[in-house]
Design goal:
With 285 residues, the chain is an alpha/beta fold. It has three domains: 81 residues, Winged helix-like DNA-binding domain superfamily/Winged helix DNA-binding domain (Arc Repressor Mutant, subunit A), CATH 1.10.10.10; 89 residues, D-Maltodextrin-Binding Protein, domain 2 (3-Layer(aba) Sandwich), CATH 3.40.190.10; 104 residues, 3-Layer(aba) Sandwich (D-Maltodextrin-Binding Protein, domain 2). It is built from nine helices and eleven strands. Strands 3, 4, 5, 6, 9, 10 and 11 form a seven-stranded mixed sheet that branches. A two-stranded antiparallel sheet has the order 1-2. It is elongated and about 90 Å long. The two termini are 57 Å apart.
Length: 285
């Protein structure tokens, strides 16, 4: 006698219909019928009364179902207890919004220590398939589902020695003669900024392309140039010599949590998604 036989029997008993039981387990009806038939042969008795396509539990079946329910419930309780004691692992690829992702992950670890987070940073590497991705829009919606994580306003980071730092609001026309620090052309933020500038017929004078956050910030801290930056990310690290000034039309980039549409959504996914949405609600004000 196999465990799967008992599970199929209990489902068939619940629906009193082999077709519905097969649909529930996503297997052919013939598999259910053959499994129940083999179980009855092992028990040497009929468990169902059959009338054409209709089935109903007989006296043997009702008595057997009570014991099967007890056995499977005890087994499932044991399995669930083990799952509770073991950390649940979720992998996350952080492509954009590292500072926001840091706050989110810290919150999840505090809230649910059983959920283990494995992080990767940057674009996906060959052989790495993460459960979730933190990215900026747009993304290919034919491949990914997503929900919004946060909006980040793009501002201008300017050294306080620059005369423009006295302004409370900046227009792109104010920046025509400025030198710009930016990330390399493959960086998601750079792609967003390039698109924004192109839409507004603005061509920044780029003098340095950084490949790391440290070099990016150090060039601005040294007053070697200005930069378009996400406000929340920049403000997460104190900078006494640099001021953030909003742009008149307040450009925003949208960060999302995305996952492959073909992935099977299990309890871990629902658990993680619920925690993320709770964090969003608590930080929306």
């Amino acid at each position: 006698m196999e465990l799967l036989q008992l599970r199929y029997f209990r489902t068939a008993a619940k629906f009193e219909n082999f077709s519905k039981a097969a649909a529930y387990h996503m297997i052919p009806q013939s598999a259910i019928s053959k499994t129940i038939k083999r179980l009855e042969q092992e028990l040497n008795c009929q468990l169902f009364d059959r009338n054409g396509k209709n089935i109903s539990l007989n006296t043997n079946g009702k008595a057997f179902l009570k014991n099967v329910d007890k056995a499977l419930n005890t087994l499932d309780d044991g399995i669930n207890k083990l799952k509770e004691d073991e950390p649940q692992i979720i992998s996350i690829q952080i492509v954009s919004g590292v500072r926001i992702a840091d706050k989110l992950i810290s919150y999840i670890k505090r809230t649910d220590p059983h959920l283990k987070i494995v992080l990767y940073q940057g674009e996906s590497k060959e052989g790495i398939t993460s459960d979730f991705n933190i990215v900026q829009l747009p993304i290919d919606t034919k491949i990914y589902d997503y929900f919004k994580l946060a909006d980040e306003e793009i501002m201008v980071a300017i050294h306080k020695k620059n005369p423009l730092s006295k302004k409370h609001m900046i227009q792109l026309s104010d920046l025509q003669n400025e030198k710009f620090i930016t990330y390399d052309s493959n960086n998601p933020l750079r792609i967003f900024i390039d698109d924004y500038c192109k839409q507004n017929n603005f061509s920044p004078n780029i003098i340095f392309e950084a490949h790391s956050v440290d070099s990016f910030r150090s060039m601005i801290d040294a007053n070697l140039g200005i930069a378009f930056v996400p406000s929340s990310s920049w403000n997460s690290v104190e900078s006494k010599d640099v001021k953030l000034i909003p742009i008149k039309d307040h450009p925003m980039r949208q960060l999302v949590v995305a996952w492959d549409k073909d992935k099977e959504i299990n309890d871990r996914y629902h658990q993680f998604s619920s925690l993320v949405k709770k964090w969003i609600e608590e930080n929306s004000n």
